[in-house]
Design goal:
The chain is elongated, with a radius of gyration of 68 Å. By secondary structure, the protein is mainly alpha-helical. The protein has 70 helices and 14 strands. Among the domains are: about 45-160 and about 285-350, Rossmann fold, CATH 3.40.50; about 185-245, no CATH class; about 360-455 and about 605-625, no CATH class; about 465-580, no CATH class; about 855-940, no CATH class; about 1200-1275, Ribosomal Protein S8, Chain: A, domain 1 (2-Layer Sandwich). About 30% of the residues are buried.
Length: about 1300
């Protein structure tokens, strides 16, 4: 019931506290985060609470260990448990405030600390000076003193945890203040006792007449005697109780007599000495749980053993009727494995809330909660928080760090001076993790300050080292320059020369070594041979082919020393270009070393020094290397007060130190002081391009050499920042040019970095031509001609100058030709973008100085401005040479190829005359491609094709741009020079289409060329053969060309292509002769007929018909060219038996009969037997037989002869010949013609229909049969 009642009371208290807490949290104002234990959330503490509650309810468990590392949350777990379980009466014993100054003094040596299990945060803390609340290990001689002090503290905290009223017999008396109520009550009680005693003593008072007590008696008698007696009895009892109570508080532990001291007991320790006090304390109180914290910080295990003994005594004590548990909050490594499990009855491990890997997250979270975001112009760098968090594993340390940063940030950053939050956070981190080092740094002493203090000396040593290295390189370069030998081979040749010189052995061809071997001059020049020479002791000049010639041996070592071979070989190993590169690199490093600031140096070479000096300050190494701890650390130690620097200037210095950019017109109140305060790094990257600073540095001042050099170096650093911030540099340049200070800026830029002069021209403020012209004007007006030439080594300056449009303001300075203007004219610069606004005189002056680029745009400008015809934008060589501009034609002719290229960029054709075109082509004689291109862009013709124009011969032909008078000569020129007299295209001719162009030209001009082409008799045979043999030449072209001439039969041989014989057979230029007929019979027999037919009028008179082969007779007969009489003459020479053997002959003669039928010209009657015999030929068709039959009818044959032939025409005609009945024939063409022929002779009657012929013999044929004589029938 008691536990239930206590739990109910605890819950009511919690509700009240919760209400008060909610009222407090409703405030938006943020305060420091307390470092005390916190109440954990249920999901975190539930398991811990359940285990601890179970342990407290177990009567066998008396000693409970809550283990975990520092900051793991042990105290928070205990606080949460007792807040949620108020039924347990507990008391806390904390020893965190007890230290031992005499053991761990500020100036004493460090105690020996076990770091095997320390976290990075603990190691970092030990590095700066160990804290007294962190793992203290004391010396053996002082341990007992420390233990006694600890035990006294434990006893005091136990007894003071119990109200004094409950332990009145305690020997440890404490000051108690009795309340006014109790004093009044006791005073009243004593007064009542006294009054009651007087009431009982009233008779005696009344009898004593010496006392005037009537007034007192009257009052006393108001109290009844029984009441007075009762009060007096009660008061006596109360006084007796009080007296006995006071007597019980007295005890005698010892007695001191003269000469000695007697003690009742002898105690081994404070705890044992006060064990009765402890038991009395628990007997008189209701405490059942004792929580002991921070006892492990002293690394003294004996205290734990004695506390365990006390707990055991309490448990067995008859005075204490309840179990009392001791709960120890200790770190994990306090006990060994076996000791811890033996000592404690239950161990509850606490999982750490914070460790090195998650501290950064907690740190970021708390910073976000505690630091107002509206006061943060920049957020803290994540890498900074991560690295600082790695060295922290204590939640209290995180909270304290955030608290301190919050107040620093709110008071320093929110002021007028704008500090870098990251550097401020770094200083707070050092303050928390390395407090002693921080204090020394603030006093400008100690390890941390030494890295800043020693930096100038380090720079000086580095500078001296570089200077020494540079001097050595320069000495090596001088030695290499003065070395007479060019390489090692030549040096070895000098060794050979020295050997020969000593003994005048000029005829020697080799050296004989100690081992009898020989080496020649070639061998000694090589590494292997020279190694053999060095290994030998002596070398004797000799001639191998003449052993009788002997010279004295020479000591090789002495020879090498005489020549100083080793030293000179080492010198020759150096390369002058490599040495120059190394010297230039060292000079750059030296210049950089003079200006390198601390934060840049630590990221390079000086970083190794920092790491070596700060071995025990790991986190500080990171802060220094990353620039969070810099030479401006003093700005983050306290408030800034105006003095030599104003607040705005101080903010500017800090901003530049944070790598922030400021506007060019940012006001600098004391520029000279600001310049001195800023280092090179702060002024670099364009941050130093400020009007106030640059204006100050550009002013000429009489200063000491060192200060003057420092100002010059800082100005160079500022100006070099123009590479990163060109627009800022452009703004600065615009200002100084506008206020006539451009020359000073040009000189400074040239000294710092000449490329910056060009960077200005690329900026937004120098996009106009006028602004660029003004800036370049200052450049040329400031630098000398040599300086300008060096500035333009890569042609950049020339490019910018040539692009300017308006150079009218430059003409007077160019005319004077001084300083940079002299370079401009001597180069000369070629202006390529001049506008039309320039005056003719100025433009002519520019051309006269050869300063105008002869491109198309400038040539057009020159034409328009010089001749005044602005509307005409066509440019030609003819128009240019007609201008009245000095030196123009010479300049055009000097670079005619480029000029022509520009002219060809125009659209359309170039307006050139024949003379200017010829002149241009002659100037371009070495540029065949340009000649052809130029010619193709012009329209004028050439009078003739001369040798200088060779490259355009074919183009002239192809484009028909040769005058008529020059055409024949052009053909012969090309034929001879290009086509190599018909042998093929000359190897020197690049145009493989030359032949096609030539032939196309000839074909297009064949009619014109025909009359004049064949005047050159010595070459015409070759050209004729070439044309005949070239299949590309059309027959029509040949017909035109050869029309005026007759071809010699000597041309007609096997070289003539087969396709050309057809033309030859038909061409009028080929006459008839038997020679020609024989040529055709050999080379083109299939065209022999054509040759004859095309010349038949001439051939029929000379041709021997009987000598013709039958095939030719057939062909001539079928050709229809010979007349019918000539055909009959041809066939008359053919024997009859040929027709029975030769089908062509038979058919040919039948065709001749058909032709005779048409022309009504029959063969002579003497040829009738041949025709009757022909009808029997098996080679004839029905039509052929019909044609022969019709011819026979035309020749006048009688019916009997006809009847004898009709059976050869088929069965129906056979029936017509032998019977007298009608026959029916198909109405075919042959049948119709034959029936009509028979009708004309009166042999048959016939009716011809569309598809049918009905015919029968006439009666007259009957009588003919009867009258026919046997002789006639027999002949048929």
């Amino acid at each position: 019931m008691k536990r239930l009642w206590d739990a109910l009371a605890a819950r009511i208290c919690e509700m009240g506290e919760g209400y008060n807490t909610s009222q407090t949290l409703s405030s938006k104002e943020k305060f420091f985060e307390p470092l005390t234990p916190v109440l954990l959330k249920e999901h975190v503490s539930s398991r811990y609470e359940r285990e601890l509650r179970h342990a407290l309810e177990n009567p066998e468990i008396l000693n409970i260990a809550i283990t975990g590392s520092y900051g793991a949350g042990k105290s928070s777990v205990l606080k949460t448990f007792f807040e949620n379980h108020r039924s347990y009466k507990h008391t806390f014993i904390s020893l965190a405030t007890f230290t031992k100054p005499d053991l761990v003094g500020e100036s004493g040596t460090k105690p020996k600390v076990d770091t095997s299990s320390q976290t990075p945060a603990e190691k970092g803390a030990d590095a700066a000076g160990p804290k007294v609340d962190k793992d203290i290990t004391v010396e053996k001689a002082d341990k007992d003193v420390l233990i006694n002090r600890i035990e006294e503290t434990i006893v005091q905290q136990l007894l003071y945890a119990v109200p004094a009223s409950k332990v009145p017999k305690s020997r440890l008396k404490r000051i108690t203040q009795t309340s006014s109520f109790h004093l009044s009550l006791r005073t009243g009680a004593m007064t009542a006792i006294a009054v009651c005693a007087l009431r009982l003593y009233s008779p005696t008072i009344a009898n004593n007449s010496s006392v005037a007590s009537s007034w007192l008696l009257e009052k006393l008698l108001l109290i009844s005697e029984p009441l007075a007696l009762l009060v007096l009895a009660a008061g006596g009892i109360w006084l007796l109780h009080t007296a006995l109570k006071l007597l019980s508080l007295f005890s005698i532990d010892g007695l001191t007599l003269k000469g000695g001291k007697l003690e009742a007991t002898q105690h081994g320790s404070v705890l044992h000495k006060n064990v009765d006090e402890i038991i009395y304390c628990f007997e008189r109180s209701d405490v059942d749980v004792v929580v002991i914290e921070d006892l492990d910080r002293f690394d003294v295990q004996e205290i734990f053993f004695r506390l365990r003994e006390i707990n055991f005594i309490i448990r067995n004590s008859p005075q204490v009727k309840r179990p009392v548990r001791f709960v120890y909050a200790i770190r994990d490594e306090m006990f060994g494995v076996g000791d811890k499990t033996k000592f404690f009855d239950l161990i509850i491990p606490i999982i750490p809330v914070v460790h090195g890997d998650n501290a950064n997250e907690l740190l970021s979270k708390l910073l976000g909660e505690r630091v107002s975001s509206d006061r943060l112009p920049h957020r803290l760098h994540e890498r900074l928080i991560d690295n600082v968090g790695y060295y922290i594993d204590d939640m209290r340390l995180i909270k304290n760090l955030v608290n301190e940063y919050s107040i620093y940030e709110s008071l320093l950053v929110c002021g007028e001076v704008k500090l870098d939050l990251n550097k401020l956070f770094a200083m707070v981190a050092i303050r928390n993790l390395y407090p002693r080092a921080f204090a020394d740094l603030a006093k400008r002493r100690g390890t941390l300050y030494s890295i800043f203090e020693e930096y100038p000396a380090w720079v000086a040593s580095q500078f001296q080292s570089k200077e020494d290295e540079l001097s050595a390189l320069q000495a090596r370069r001088i030695a290499r320059q003065h070395e007479q030998a060019t390489d090692v081979v030549e040096l070895r040749a000098r060794v050979w020369y020295e050997i020969m010189r000593r003994d005048q052995a000029w005829e020697a061809t080799s050296l004989q070594l100690d081992d009898g071997s020989y080496i020649s001059l070639k061998d000694i020049a090589e590494d292997d041979g020279f190694a053999r020479f060095k290994a030998a002791n002596n070398a004797r000049p000799s001639i191998q082919k003449r052993p009788d010639v002997i010279w004295n041996p020479q000591k090789t070592e002495m020879i090498l020393k005489e020549v100083n071979y080793e030293a000179r070989a080492k010198v020759l190993a150096d390369s002058l270009p490599e040495l120059d590169a190394q010297i230039a690199k060292l000079e750059r490093e030296i210049r950089h070393l003079k200006a390198v600031p601390f934060r840049v140096a630590v990221r390079k070479t000086y970083g190794g020094v920092v790491r070596e000096r700060l071995t025990d300050f790991k986190m500080v190494i990171f802060l220094v290397l990353k620039g969070y701890l810099d030479t401006d650390f003093v700005d983050y130690l306290g408030y800034f007060y105006e003095g030599s620097l104003t607040q705005s200037d101080k903010n500017l210095i800090l901003a530049l130190g944070r790598d922030e950019m400021a506007g060019f017109n940012t006001k600098v109140e004391k520029p000279e002081r600001v310049i001195r305060a800023l280092d090179h790094e702060s002024l670099s990257q364009g941050r130093g391009i400020l009007l106030g600073l640059m204006n100050e540095l550009l002013k000429p001042r009489l200063l000491e050499r060192e200060e003057s050099e420092e100002r010059a170096e800082k100005l160079a650093v500022i100006l070099k920042g123009g590479h990163q911030e060109p627009e800022l540099l452009g703004e600065a340049t615009e200002y100084f040019v506008e206020f006539e200070k451009g020359n000073e800026l040009v000189r400074a830029l040239h000294s710092a970095d000449s490329d910056l002069i060009f960077s200005v021209l690329s900026t937004r403020r120098f996009q106009t031509d006028a602004s660029r012209a003004r800036w370049i004007y200052h450049v040329l007006d400031t630098l000398t001609a040599d300086e300008t030439a060096r500035l333009d080594e890569d042609g950049t300056l020339s490019t910018w100058v040539e692009q300017l449009e308006d150079v009218s303001a430059w003409i007077p300075r160019m005319s004077a030709s001084e300083r940079g203007w002299q370079w401009l004219r001597s180069k000369p610069i070629k202006f390529s973008n001049i506008s039309k606004q320039i005056s003719p005189d100025d433009l002519k002056a520019v051309v006269t100085w050869r300063c105008l680029k002869l491109d198309l745009r400038m040539l057009r400008l020159l034409c328009q401005v010089a001749d005044g015809n602005v509307e005409d934008d066509a440019v030609s060589y003819e128009r240019l040479v007609q201008l009245d501009v000095p030196n123009l034609k010479e300049q055009l002719d000097e670079d005619i190829v480029a000029v022509v290229e520009q002219l060809l960029q125009q659209e359309g054709m170039l307006d050139e005359s024949s003379d200017t075109l010829r002149a241009l082509l002659e100037l371009l004689s070495t540029q065949p491609d340009k000649m052809r291109e130029l010619f193709s862009r012009t329209q004028c013709s050439l009078p003739s094709l001369d040798e200088p124009l060779r490259e355009v011969w074919l183009l002239a032909m192809d484009e028909d741009r040769i005058d008529a008078n020059g055409m024949p000569g052009a053909v012969w020129m090309v034929f001879r020079e290009v086509l190599n007299d018909g042998e093929g295209v000359s190897a020197a001719v690049q145009d493989r289409n030359a032949e096609a162009v030539f032939l196309d030209y000839i074909q297009s001009k064949a009619e014109v060329l025909a009359h004049e082409l064949w005047s050159e008799s010595d070459q015409q045979i070759k050209l004729q053969r070439y044309l005949l043999c070239n299949e590309r030449v059309q027959d029509e072209t040949l017909a035109h060309l050869f029309a005026p001439i007759k071809i010699d039969f000597a041309l007609l041989d096997s070289s003539i292509p087969a396709s050309r014989w057809a033309f030859i057979s038909e061409a009028d230029c080929v006459p008839y002769s038997q020679v020609g007929l024989d040529i055709f019979r050999v080379h083109a027999p299939h065209l022999e007929l054509a040759y004859l037919l095309n010349r038949w009028e001439e051939a029929r008179l000379k041709l021997n018909f009987s000598a013709l082969p039958i095939s030719m007779t057939v062909a001539l007969s079928n050709s229809q060219v010979p007349s019918m009489g000539e055909v009959m003459q041809l066939w008359s020479t053919v024997p009859a038996d040929v027709f029975m053997k030769n089908s062509e002959a038979a058919v040919g003669l039948a065709n001749a009969c058909a032709r005779g039928n048409q022309e009504w010209m029959p063969f002579s009657e003497s040829y009738l037997p041949v025709l009757f015999e022909l009808t029997k030929s098996p080679f004839l068709s029905q039509g052929n037989r019909a044609d022969i039959m019709i011819h026979l009818l035309i020749m006048g044959c009688d019916w009997l002869s006809v009847a004898a032939v009709l059976p050869h025409l088929g069965d129906e005609f056979s029936a017509l010949a032998g019977q007298r009945r009608p026959i029916r024939l198909a109405a075919e063409v042959e049948n119709v013609r034959l029936i009509k022929a028979l009708q004309r002779r009166g042999f048959v009657r016939a009716k011809i229909f569309d598809a049918l012929i009905i015919a029968c013999r006439k009666k007259s044929t009957y009588s003919g049969e009867r009258a026919s004589s046997p002789s006639q029938a027999g002949w048929l």
